[in-house]
Automatic annotation (TrEMBL):
It catalyses: D-ribulose 5-phosphate = D-xylulose 5-phosphate. Transmembrane segments: none annotated. PROSITE patterns: RIBUL_P_3_EPIMER_2. Substrate binds at residues 9, 67, 143-146, 176-178, 198-199. This is Ribulose-phosphate 3-epimerase. Pfam families: Ribul_P_3_epim (PF00834). The active site is at 36 (proton acceptor), 176 (proton donor).
């Protein structure tokens, strides 16, 4: 059985007990730690930067899946690599020279991902999909946790899966925003490989059990 990869979003963790929550993910059946980096420019919110990523990396043995919701991400690629990022995802909408950015991420030894905002069509990735390890489909408008899931996401995942198959790639499809037990199975059926879950995990009574249920969806 092909299990979903689960990447709990540490944006929903308790920042006063970050080590505890990182270890909770470490001791669960989750696959990755998902870290949302926001600059207050590309998105209205501000989260955390390199020092927090580095601190998390010291407690984490599972890969750090770092999502940059920032303008001009090229400035920081090598810094995120040295801070411990394993996967670095940039926004299609933030990159003027996306191919160059993707190559720069890979040159630092990281896997390269590209995120699409809800309004950005999948077809815009046709010329670069073969270079990507991951595509992150935003199922809410980026910037804040706890938003409602956008229903068009299922169709978008299906189109992306068709593109990946047509190009003969093994690019993973990751989904972030409003993800939980209520839609995990449907997202998997549409073609999702990785689910990012924040409040669905950290606000649940038993986060470890919730992660396991998501994985079994």
């Amino acid at each position: 059985m092909n299990h979903l990869k689960i990447a709990p979003s540490l944006l929903a963790a308790d920042f006063g007990n970050l080590e505890r929550d990182v270890k909770l993910v470490e001791n669960s059946k989750a696959d990755w730690h998902h870290l949302d980096i926001m600059d207050g420019l590309f998105v209205p919110n501000i989260s955390y930067g390199m020092p927090v990523v580095k601190a998390i990396s010291e407690y984490a043995s599972k890969p750090l899946d770092v999502h940059l919701m920032i303008v001009d991400p090229d400035r920081y690629i090598s810094e995120f690599a040295s801070s411990g990022a394993h996967i670095l995802t940039v926004h299609f909408e933030a990159c003027k020279h996306l191919h160059r950015t993707v190559q720069a991420i890979k040159a630092e030894g990281m896997k390269a991902g590209v995120a699409l905002n809800p309004h950005t069509p999948v077809r815009l990735l046709e010329d670069i999909i073969q270079d990507l390890d991951l595509v992150l489909v935003m199922s809410v408008n980026p910037g804040f946790g706890g938003q409602s899931f956008i229903e068009n996401t299922y169709e978008k995942i299906r189109k992306l899966k068709e593109l990946i198959t047509a190009k003969g790639c093994d690019t993973l499809i990751e989904v972030d925003g409003g993800v939980g037990l209520q839609n995990a199975a449907k997202l998997k059926a549409a073609g999702a490989d990785v689910l990012v879950a924040g409040s669905a995990v950290f606000s649940s009574e038993d986060p470890g059990a919730t992660i396991e249920k998501l994985k079994e969806s």
